[in-house]
Amino acid sequence: MSDKPRTPIGKIVAASLIGTTIEWYDFFLYGSAAALVFPALFFPESDPLTGTLLAFLTYAVGFVARPLGALVFGHYGDRLGRKKLLVISLLMMGGATFLIGCLPTHAAIGMAAPLLLTALRLVQGFALGGEWGGAVLIVSEHGDTERRGFWASWPQAGAPGGNLLATAVLAVLAAVQSDEAFQSWGWRVPFLLSGVLVLLGLWIRLSISESPIFQQAVANAKPSRSMPIVEVFRYHWRDVITAIGARFAENVSYYVLTAFVLVYATTEAGLAKPVVLNAVLIGSAVHFFSIPLWGALSDKLGRRPVYLLGAAGVGLWSFAFFPLIDTRNFAAVTLAVTVGLILHGAMYGPQAAFFSELFATRMRYSGVSIGAQLASIVAGGLAPLIAVALLGAYDSSFPVMLYVAGAAVLTMITVFVSRETRGRDLATLGAAEESTTR
């Protein structure tokens, strides 16, 4: 084991939270821009709805790259450690986002513009696919068993934190600029700002210690010829399925609540962009603080009961969400987004501890990452695309409500038949399986 003193849990949480906030800022900034400006800038020859579909298709490409990132980062994270891979993922994500802010548009270089945009989106997805598993694990493996749900939920809060930051920057720019100025050059500012944020994240992440549970596992392990991902599917294939199913409603509902809502509220309900952005801004702020509360509750009640409450909640709330948006009232729109995100937090808060407690240490990064990111392709990645397509095909929000509710039912079934994981010792979890592969 390393002679470096163990970093206090508070600093570990801060390093993970700031890093994941920056990474999600980069990722969600793209989603907001795909809804608001990319259709006109990169797909100007299409009608507005088709342009939006094409923009969200490049958005979905980022999700396709996430399982590949999960495989690569998971493999090396289980071999080399969590910290090194977290630094690399932050550099990759920040660099890709900064370059998006420098891209020429379709008017300048034609079809090369959307192709370059898609390539950078792939890099974003690859990096985020590796980021999530490492961030939640380094906290889970530093924290104590009794409060793991609470501590591990803080990196999860980086998602609304990043969305909050991205939405806030876009809202400020939309308020102080004309639509013409924002469309011309203002949209680039938040992408370029990512470069500064990455330097801050690197400074903090480089100062923390490696996971003590991982170091102990390395010290005690015999050399293995098997790749971690092979061992995951050999010993934990049921747990991978559990992670995919549990993630489904969480992913679908989140991207409907935060990305598709920008399209629906501005094109169908006729609301101004600043109104919708401010509603998402308020909802994300409440979401940020609700996630650790749900994580703490899962330490008391268990991961499954809290997760089931969240899945059922978002499924039912979807039938109130769109009618509230249709009122075109700012308070109602804000209520719709905020309640939806609070219910989403009941799934997202316990999720980090829940997934961490499914896998053995030397295959945990791979297992957590691949389980979560496989779901991201068919759930989060396609959610805005499917929602826009359903809206265009039926000219009604009701099919979208059924889509979210169906995802909720799938997740409820998965979690209901899974095992409760609260209280498991991560240091000894899966020791028998690991010993047989060494």
What does this protein look like?
With 438 residues, this protein is mainly alpha-helical. It is 81% helix and 0% strand. It is built from 20 helices and no strands. Helix 15 (303-326) runs antiparallel to helix 16 (330-356). The longest helix has 33 residues, at 48-80. Residues 432-438 have low confidence and may be disordered.
Helix and strand sequence: HHHHHHHHHHHHHHHHHHHH
Helix content: over 70%
Provide the structure class.
mainly alpha
**Strand portion, in percent?**
under 5%
Regions with little confidence, pLDDT below 50 for 5+ residues:
432-438
- How does the major sheet shape up? none
Overall residue-averaged pLDDT value: 85
Gross morphology: globular
N-to-C CA distance: 19 Å
Count the E strands: 0
Rounded radius of gyration (Å):
21 Å
Number of H/I helices: 20
Assembly of the depicted chains: single chain
Summarize this entry quickly.
With 438 residues, the protein is an all-alpha fold. It is built from 20 helices and no strands.
Keywords:
globular, 0% strand, 81% helix, mainly alpha, 20 helices, disordered C terminus, 438 residues
Ordered list of secondary-structure elements with their pairings:
Elements: H1 9-36, H2 38-42, H3 48-80, H4 82-100, H5 106-109, H6 112-140, H7 148-156, H8 158-176, H9 179-186, H10 188-205, H11 212-220, H12 228-235, H13 237-268, H14 273-301, H15 303-326, H16 330-356, H17 364-378, H18 383-394, H19 398-417, H20 431-436
Helix pairs in contact: 1-3, 1-4, 1-6, 1-7, 1-8, 1-10, 1-13, 3-4, 3-6, 3-17, 3-18, 4-6, 4-10, 6-7, 6-17, 7-14, 7-16, 8-14, 12-17, 13-14, 13-15, 13-16, 13-17, 13-18, 13-19, 14-15, 14-16, 15-16, 15-19
